[in-house]
Design a protein that fits this description.
- The chain is α+β, with helices and mostly antiparallel strands.
- The chain has 19 helices and 18 strands.
- The strands form 3 sheets. A 9-stranded mixed sheet has the order 2-1-4-7-6-5-8-9-3, covered by helices on one side. Strands 11, 13, 14, 16, 17 and 18 form a 6-stranded mixed sheet that branches.
- Helix 1 runs parallel beside helix 5, helix 10 packs antiparallel against helix 11 and helix 11 runs antiparallel to helix 13.
Length: 719
């Protein structure tokens, strides 16, 4: 059955191919006739319609070879024994005899399948192609009628009677430079956007032959059109944006302007992918440095690039530079190539304290001279031995800071998480976890309390004995915080020490060798809140309020009630944020060091050596008065501006104008249609955009009124 299906499909394809071969020569003949009689545009339409029609006919004829045709063909050949209808019937609906006959027919077809494809109509195909090619050759090669040209060369009276010329067809061929990789493009529109240095070829066909024709550009240049085989042709190279129109004698009915935009080739851009920063600090013992760049261009970059490597050695004024270059091969598309390289620092001779500077330089495919693009410089700074030691010391210090200052926000997060897990946690475990959070709250409170001069809590001490000096205060550390009554067994951050002697306010003379007396004599007394001068009074009060809230939150957490502790914890966090935002830097008030005043010149009226206090004003070139006058004239329908002057001004200042071609087009359009009101408004709007805006000037002081004038006169009348 599969072999039969394949033979059926081959028969359909054969009939479609026969239909195409028979129809294509006549489509070619029809296209040639349309090109000769009606021009290129009509010929394209005829060719498209003919091909679509031939394809539709071929598809229809191929679909005519349906299942009924196949059954008739098999029965006619005798290979199916007049049972071809059983091949396409439902097997389940057949009786045993019919199924047996079906299997017998299939076996016979497998052994001897008849040829189903129609024969090639060789004679019809050959005759059709000969006829089609003959018609096309006659249509294209038949001599042109010279009567229209003779009529065009007749005196002006005859041409005026015939009316203005009309463009019958237009064709613009654009051959871009080879380095762009763009294919040759042909279009019917005369407006185009092309690459710089593209070769342009115009082919125009008029309804009758003019005496002469040319392309008139807005800068005054003319490009003559030459007649060849009924078409008027011209060629040029696009270098700058232009406006042009087709001009002929006799005049054309269509005199509109056409715009030719020229896109200049941009220089390649290089982006650094790795490293991410322009300055990279190397690690001790680093041996390699990986670099990756991406170069992009509108028309492609060359596969090879140059990597410039500069190594600096020395320090201070004794610095030497060693430059090297490495050629890299890129990967990827030509418009976005990637370059990768790994520098061997040992091979470059880079040592600790040196800098390695890398920069990639690429070129594009621009001809004849390639454009250059460079990446930003990336620097690898290898740390010196002293810097490594300092960094290690700083790292050790930084490691202790996170443990020293615990986070109040983290305590709140832990408490909220514990509340959410309350149902799945045993009561004893819940209380223990709440107590652990309360311990964290206590440690944080003690740390912040040190900024207020409070002492860290410590373990209880034994009662005093006869061999130790007694004190009026308990052995445990005292606290200014009257809320702090927790004498637990957990030690604080400070070691327990007793401030005796002068620290306790007694008159007992210091004992030689006693650490407590030495500290109280020459050290700090941070067990007094008033002695802590680190913060200003307002900040100290805010921090004191935060400690009070921490104390309340700690008490609730230690008793296993985190829900009651959350309001106090949130208030403590708010106070801590206020303290952080209240940080200030206080500097000594030092007045400016002014030069001494020369008392001998006081009240003398001597102004020698005094500089003028007037600020110099930068002169600005005012707008061209003629252009301003032309703008004003355009607002009055009764007056006409000088369009020649405006065109010359536009050509001189085309670099500085926002859109020079639009301004030139507005000038030319008004020149063609002087009575067009819309054209005047358009040109006026373009001129307004082109005029330079005056800078804002300093406003003059208003004249004094009668009272003010009397005051000024009184000042001048004083001796």
């Amino acid at each position: 059955m599969k072999t039969l299906q394949q033979a059926w499909q081959r028969a359909r394809r054969r009939r479609a191919a026969v239909t195409l071969l028979l129809g294509l020569p006549w489509a070619l003949a029809a296209t040639a006739l349309a090109l000769r009689l009606s021009g290129f545009d009509i010929a394209c339409v005829v060719a498209t319609v003919s091909l679509l029609l031939i394809a539709a006919v071929a598809t229809t004829r191929a679909r005519q070879l349906d299942r009924r045709w196949l059954q008739r063909r098999l029965d006619a050949s005798g290979a199916s024994e007049d049972s071809a209808d059983l091949l396409f019937a439902d097997v389940a609906a057949l009786n045993p005899l019919q199924q047996r006959q079906r299997m017998h027919v299939l076996a016979a077809l497998e052994r001897n399948l008849p040829e189903l494809r129609p024969r090639w109509p060789r004679r019809a195909v050959v005759l059709g192609w000969i006829g089609g090619i003959a018609v096309a050759v006659l249509a294209l090669g038949w001599p042109h009628n010279t009567a229209p040209r003779t009529a065009a060369l007749a005196p002006p009276q005859g041409s005026s009677q015939a009316g203005p010329l009309r463009l019958q067809s237009t064709r613009l061929r654009i051959d871009a430079p080879a380095y762009t990789g763009q294919p040759t493009r042909t279009q019917n529109a005369l407006d185009a956007k092309v690459a710089a240095d593209s070769r342009l070829s115009w082919s125009l066909r008029f309804d009758r032959a003019p005496s002469k024709a040319w392309l008139q550009f807005h800068d005054g240049r003319r490009l003559p059109l030459r007649e060849h085989d009924g078409e008027w042709q011209a060629q040029d190279v696009a270098r700058t944006p232009l406006l042009y129109r087709v001009v002929s004698e006799p005049a054309l009915a269509d005199t509109r302007l056409h715009r030719l935009d020229v896109v200049a080739d941009r220089a390649p851009t290089v982006r650094v992918i790795e490293p991410a920063a322009s300055l990279v600090l190397g690690s001790p013992g680093q041996r390699q440095w990986a670099l990756r760049f991406e170069a992009s261009d509108d028309h492609g970059v060359v596969p090879q690039a140059t990597l410039s490597i500069t190594t600096t050695q020395g320090s201070g004024e004794n610095i030497t530079f060693v430059r090297r270059s490495v050629t890299l091969n890129g990967s990827g598309e030509s418009t976005a190539r990637r370059f990768a390289h790994t520098l061997d620092l040992a091979a470059l001779g880079a040592q600790p304290g040196n800098d390695v500077i890398a920069q990639l330089e690429v070129r594009d495919n621009h001809a004849p001279t390639a454009q250059l693009g460079r990446s930003s410089s990336v620097i690898l700074r290898l740390p010196s031995t002293e810097a490594v030691l300092g960094a290690e010391l700083e790292g050790r210090i930084k490691k202790t800071l996170p443990a020293y200052f615990r986070s109040q926000r983290q305590i709140i997060i832990d408490a909220e998480a514990l509340i959410r897990e309350r149902r799945g946690v045993a009561a004893d475990t819940f209380v223990k976890r709440s107590d652990a959070i309360g311990v964290d709250q206590r440690i944080l409170r003690l740390r912040y309390g040190q900024f207020l001069g409070e002492e860290s809590e410590g373990a209880p001490k034994p009662p005093p004995t006869s061999d130790l000096p007694t004190s009026d205060t308990p052995a445990a550390d005292a606290h200014d915080d009257d809320h702090d009554h927790d004498h637990g067994t957990q030690a604080g951050a400070h070691d327990d020490h007793d401030h005796g002697g002068a620290a306790n306010g007694s008159d007992t003379p210091p004992v030689f060798g006693s650490a407590t007396d030495v500290l109280s004599e020459y050290g700090h007394t941070h067990d007094h809140a008033e002695a802590a001068t680190l913060l200003d009074p307002q900040t100290r009060a805010t921090l004191k309020a935060a400690l009070d809230q921490m104390w309340s939150a700690e008490g609730e957490l230690r008793q296993g009630r985190p829900e009651q502790a959350l309001p106090f914890a949130y208030k403590a966090l708010a106070f801590i944020k206020q303290v952080q935002q209240a940080e200030r830097i206080y500097l000594a008030r030092v007045g400016p060091e002014l030069p001494p005043i020369d008392e001998s010149r006081r009240l003398s009226g001597d102004r020698a050596g005094l500089a003028s206090r007037e600020l110099p004003l930068t002169a600005r070139t005012p707008p061209n008065p003629a252009v301003v006058e032309a703008w004003q004239r355009l607002g009055d329908d009764a007056s006409t501006p000088d369009l020649d002057m405006l065109a010359a001004w536009q050509q001189r200042n085309s670099v500085f104008l926002p859109d020079a071609l639009d301004l030139a087009a507005a000038i030319e359009q008004l020149r063609i249609e002087p009575s067009c009101t819309e054209c005047r408004q358009r040109l006026r709007a373009q001129l307004w955009r082109a005029l330079q805006r005056p800078l804002p000037q300093v406003m003059r002081r208003s004249a004094a009124d009668a009272m003010g004038q009397r005051y000024l006169d009184a000042l001048e009348a004083q001796p």
